[in-house]
Amino acid sequence: MIIAETNRLIISKISLEDAPFFLKLVNTPNWIKYIGDRNLKTIKDAEDYLTNGILKSYKELGFGFYLLQNKFDNEAIGICGLVKRDQLDEVDFGFALLPEFEAQGFGFEASTAILKVAKDGFNIKKVLAITLPINTNSIKLLEKLGFNYEKRIKPYEDDEELLLFAKQLEL
Question: What CATH number does residue 114 fall under?
Fold first, then answer.
């Protein structure tokens, strides 16, 4: 199901058929470095992760992370979307691209579309984003999107300090 389109991207709901792509994405060096090793080693692992995470979010909240496909060849290049984490008070925004598609404007293009969907489609007034302090590319993109740094937080048991950003979606 298509959620949005941009000049270069089709943004759609993820399905179990996308498990091979998702397995590839979560095992890229930047995902492991900046998001964390999810220990997904097989297609079945990826299917279980999707079922218990993104697909569950669609059912319970109506939104989640979405598949980004290049319009020119329908190749899956990344994900972008919204998640409600127990550790955060507001909806969290995130993105990840395969390495060969980073630094080409796809992240900004997809993020702009998803933030519009959050506001117009789900009436979300404020979104948060968390990132490691060393993830300078994500920080630059968040700032370009109009997110403002709020504070450092330690939302998870691993005690790793993250930067918390926020963006108001109201007019």
Answer: 3.40.630.30
Whether 21 maps to a domain, the answer reads: yes
Domain that holds residue 99: 2-122
Strand partners, 164: 130, 151
For residue 171, what pLDDT band results from cuts at 50, 70 and 90?
low
Number of structural domains (the chain) is 1
3-state secondary structure of 107: helix
Q: What is the pTM of this model?
A: 0.91
pLDDT, tens only, 72-85: 999 999 999 999 98
The answer to whether 69 and 17 are in contact (CB under 8 A) is no
The answer as to whether 160 is a domain residue is no
Residue 82 is encoded by which pair of tokens? 């919204």
Within a domain: residue 72? yes
Least confident among 4-18, 46-60, 68-82, 146-160? 146-160
E-assigned strand segments in the chain:
2-5, 9-13, 65-70, 76-83, 91-97, 126-131, 148-153, 162-168
